[in-house]
Amino acid sequence: MSGGSYYVPASSKWPILASLALGVMMTGTGMVLVHGRGTPMMAAGLVGVLAVMTLWFRDVIRESRRGLYDAQMDRSFRWGMGWFIFSEVMFFAAFFGTLFYVRNFAIPWLDGEGAKGVAALLWPDFTASWPLMNPPDSSIAGPVETFSPWQLPLVNTLILVSSSITLTVAHEGLKEGYRSTTRNWLACTVLLGLCFITIQGVEYYEAYTHYGITLQAGIYGATFFILTGFHGLHVIIGTIILAVMLGRVLRGHFAAGDHFGFEAAAWYWHFVDAVWIGLFLFVYVF
Hints:
Layout: E1 2-3, E2 6-7, H1 14-35, H2 39-65, H3 71-110, H4 152-176, H5 179-211, H6 218-250, H7 260-285
Helix pairs in contact: 1-2, 3-6, 3-7, 4-5, 4-7, 5-6, 6-7
């Protein structure tokens, strides 16, 4: 299977199975959003996606442990991970762009400002402000109160910044061959990820029960949950990835000069941490 300078993988059933599982999941999701039913299909698709990912990654790990990957394959993995993270950057850029557009263009237009200020004719009594506590359409109830950035959001910021530090220490320990250092600091990183997820769950509970911040609370509620919710999903995925890396470290996987799986997980986690800094500043502070 390995010859010359490039590794050619054997034919695999996983890509087509992943596509089918993803198709089922998205079809079910669309049915839930449009018709209010289709949850079993969505759940079955999600289980299928997770199962395929688990088995596919298992095969990749086995191939790596058998020494089937050479330097060219390592470069391919690095380019692949790099482009994946770039796609995630564009993903969040679209959401941040939406927030910027709404705050700086759409809402002022409704108050008569700018080139499209004629939109103020729709709701002549509307006054532009952010956070938008009183949506122009009176049938939509805005949030009652917004979160102070210096409470739970600040705690979560400190947690994620700390997790980047602990992960860096774990990575340096792996590169130097100190496996106990890698194990302990990586375990701390996973724990910090779980703490972040828990605190964000508490924040969402408070948002719905006490602050009136819901998906139906106008554009503020929508942008709040889109940005923080998708980021929270990335934290959950990143925590799972790091937990898998921890399991591999405990099983003796990785070497000082051969550990791209660990390195890719670190790239992803640092990216997630960087996105949160932007969220903290533009969703909570400004």
